[in-house]
Amino acid sequence: MQVSWHQLQQLQSILHQTQTKRFAGKRKTPKYSSLSKAFTDSQITQFFRVIDDDKFRLIFSYQAQLGLRIGEAVRVNIKDINFETREITLKTEKAKVIDTLLLPNQLFKDTLAFIAKHEADIQKALYYIFFRSPEKSRRNVPFVEPNYVRNRFRYYVIKAGLDQTYDTSEESVAGRQARSLYRLTMHSQGITP
Prior knowledge:
Radius of gyration: 23 Å
Number of helices: 7
CATH superfamily: Intergrase catalytic core
Number of strands: 5
CATH topology: hpI Integrase, Chain A
């Protein structure tokens, strides 16, 4: 098939117009520009310094050091950990794939110490490391509930003096008040303590 130079130019023009229309508006400037929502080294140290509960210290360490989402962290089970290779295997929440991660040395030691200290509670909770306290759950799950962990996170952020808001939400539901938007959230923990 032979195509003239003029036909190629027309085709290129059509493709360019189509692509421009299709992706128009996709490169909007972010609403809050370059606001950093990550912990600094000193903030993560300050945050971990105020945590007085070994369960939450370990959960937040799993999130900070392995980048786990809260739903992945609370569902860590002893059966997911290979104690010989220090690897943990879990199903990711977002991609829904099986992933294997190497536990850093200190996190592995902290996990072993936590398991030894709370062996009976973990066994009762079907070997979920982050067992729930029966009085603190409305649902019948053996592990601590993600919303409870989110509330504890907010509590420790406030206790550490790191509570900062940068704006309020634009609620679209009639009668609902705007929520505060916090700079540090559960997704901000991507720094090793």
